TrEMBL record:
Species of provenance: Paraburkholderia antibiotica
Alphabetized InterPro entries for the sequence: PyrdxlP-dep_Trfase (IPR015424), PyrdxlP-dep_Trfase_major (IPR015421), SelA-like (IPR018319), SelA_trans (IPR004534), SelA_trans_N_dom (IPR025862)
Homology family: Belongs to the SelA family.
Domain L-seryl-tRNA selenium transferase N-terminal: 14-52
Entry's EC annotation: 2.9.1.1
Reaction catalyzed: L-seryl-tRNA(Sec) + selenophosphate + H(+) = L-selenocysteinyl-tRNA(Sec) + phosphate
Pathway: Aminoacyl-tRNA biosynthesis; selenocysteinyl-tRNA(Sec) biosynthesis; selenocysteinyl-tRNA(Sec) from L-seryl-tRNA(Sec) (bacterial route): step 1/1
Official protein name in the record: L-seryl-tRNA(Sec) selenium transferase
Superkingdom in the source lineage: Bacteria
Keyword Cytoplasm tagged: yes
Entry coiled-coil feature ranges: none
Length: 509
């Protein structure tokens, strides 16, 4: 019996079409047009190799099944022998091969960076890309992508320019600072500032501000990477002005304050304000650097949002340098902005790391129109996407929840019940961690009232695997989808995607 499968195998192998023949066939011309010859050729070879390997292993299984004795798993023996008589592709033809190769190429060429629905309730979600750009910025990026631009070219003189010149005036206008520069992100801004101004010297920081921001940004680590020596003062909960005063010595380069972005200390606490530290620093001939983190440019309390110190207030209070992110509350592209005294910014710009950490033209293209929106503060809540999402009224979000609820209920199993309920969103990205915004969304629980741990996980996965993944969160025995970040166009797209899913479900039932 054993050589039946052997001869069958040989016959099948002989019928495998040659790579050259496959590549020259009409079916493959379109694939070659789309993906190019190299990729298609590799995919064809892989598919043929995979076919040969599986044909051989089936033949080998049949062989050993036939020579095995009945004591060892007779059922398995039977099954293997059955498959041997019906190999995977009894006649491997180009049509079949085409389907395999097409699927492989499509899968491999699908973009890994994909649009998702952010229904986490965290508006500035670092893992989902933080701030979304307003249309003005998107258009500017499009032009910068497709047309040459005066990135480092002075149009007035025809000479070489400095990329910072494109936006430093605008940043100074909005912050009240003397000078400004932009780098890759705020972590880079802090690293560069410390490297340029405090290498081999001491930087005085309160113990209450030695924070980790997440994603491995820790003030003590950045400090040592920059070659600066951290001089910790005070205690976790209380630091006094005299602690700063007593720490200053001949090796001191900077006094530094760090905004404790993602945690809050409550109770018996004492923090020294910039308005008190700055005069001390200046009297001792030192500079005060402030890492503001979020760095909002306007007072958010005018929209009923929690108050954060603005960059202008920080500069006016006496900070000599302020660093902040472009893609947190500012609502722009990923960037780190450094503003402050002219001679300090000049020193920072001359440091070799500035070249390594500089921003590209796409960042500058996006940042300029975002900053320009701040010149019309009365329109900001409508035009700056981040602020529009943060200020969205709960009853407007409730409207969306009521429209999406039936679509979601239809798309998922009857074991789950979807209800529209009030909830709270977060700003995110370390801004104002203790504050929450009244919102509305969908809450999915088990219909039988049980806790449904793994069923909820399965549903969460199902939504995450949709064409445009839906990202929610599981808390309190429910899957929660906060609709704050689902504006009109996205709402329509989500409903359509859910409707397609219900259609598929109905068909398969
Ligand atoms: C977010 C944050 C950073 C890091 O900023 P990135 O732009 O993410 O590099 C640094 N410091 C503080 C205080 C922050 O809040």
């Amino acid at each position: 019996m054993s050589d039946v499968s052997g001869s069958e195998l040989r016959a099948l192998m002989a019928r495998v079409p040659s790579v050259e023949k496959v590549m020259a066939s009409a079916e493959f011309a379109a694939l070659i047009g789309e993906y190019g010859r190299t990729q298609v050729l590799n995919a064809v070879r892989e598919a043929l190799d995979a076919w040969r390997i599986s044909a051989r292993s089936i033949s080998a299984a049949a062989h050993s099944a036939n020579s095995a004795h009945s004591t060892s798993a007779p059922q398995a023996t039977h099954a293997a022998a059955d498959t041997a008589t019906t190999p995977p592709f009894s006649a491997l033809d180009t049509v079949q091969l085409h389907a395999t190769v097409d699927a492989a190429l499509r899968g491999r060429n699908e973009p890994r960076l994909r649009s998702v629905f952010n229904l986490t309730g965290t508006v500035l979600h670092t893992n989902l890309g933080r701030a979304l750009l307003p249309d003005e910025a998107v258009r500017a990026v499009m032009s910068a992508l497709t047309q040459p631009a005066n990135l480092e070219f002075d149009l007035a003189t025809g000479k070489r320019g400095d990329r910072d010149d494109l936006i430093d005036d605008l940043i100074c206008e909005l912050t009240g600072a003397e000078a400004a520069t932009v780098v890759n992100n705020n972590a880079a801004a802090v690293l560069l500032t410390l490297s340029a101004l405090a290498a081999n010297k001491e930087v005085v920081v309160s113990r209450g501000e030695l924070v980790e921001i997440g994603g491995a940004f820790r003030i003590p680590d950045i400090m040592s990477r920059a070659g600066a020596k951290l001089r910790e003062i005070g205690t976790t909960n209380r630091t006094h002005l005299k602690d700063y005063d007593e720490a200053i010595n001949a090796r001191t380069a900077l006094l530094m304050k760090v905004h404790a972005s993602n945690y809050a200390i409550n109770g018996f606490t004492k923090e020294v304000g910039i308005g008190e530290i700055a005069p001390l620093a200046h009297a001792r001939g030192l500079a005060l650097a402030v890492d503001l983190g979020s760095g909002t440019l306007v007072d958010l309390s005018q929209w009923g949002l929690p108050r954060e110190p603005t960059v202008r207030e920080t500069v006016e209070a006496g900070a000599d340098l302020v660093t902040f992110s472009g893609d947190k509350l500012l609502g722009g592209p990923q960037a780190g902005l450094i503003v402050g005294r002219r001679e300090l910014i000049a020193k920072i710009k001359k440091h070799p790391l500035k070249r390594a950490l500089r921003v590209g033209k796409l960042t500058l293209a996006a940042l300029e129109p975002v900053l320009q929106l701040y010149r019309a503060p009365e329109q900001l809540a409508a035009r700056l996407t981040t602020l529009r999402l943060l200020t969205r009224a709960a009853d407007e979000i409730q409207g969306a929840a009521l429209r999406v609820q039936p679509a979601l209920q239809q798309a998922i199993d009857a074991r789950y019940t979807v209800s529209a309920e009030p909830m709270f969103s977060q700003i995110g990205s370390g801004a104002l961690p203790v504050d929450v915004l009244p919102s509305y969304g969908l809450v999915v629980r088990m219909t039988d009232g049980k806790r449904g741990g793994r069923h909820l996980l399965a549903l969460e996965k199902q939504l995450r695997e949709m064409a445009r993944p839906v990202i929610g969160r599981i808390a309190d025995d429910a899957l929660r989808l906060d609709l704050r970040c689902l504006e009109a166009a996205d709402e329509a797209q989500l409903i359509a995607q859910l409707a397609a899913q219900s259609g598929a479900r109905t068909k398969s039932n």
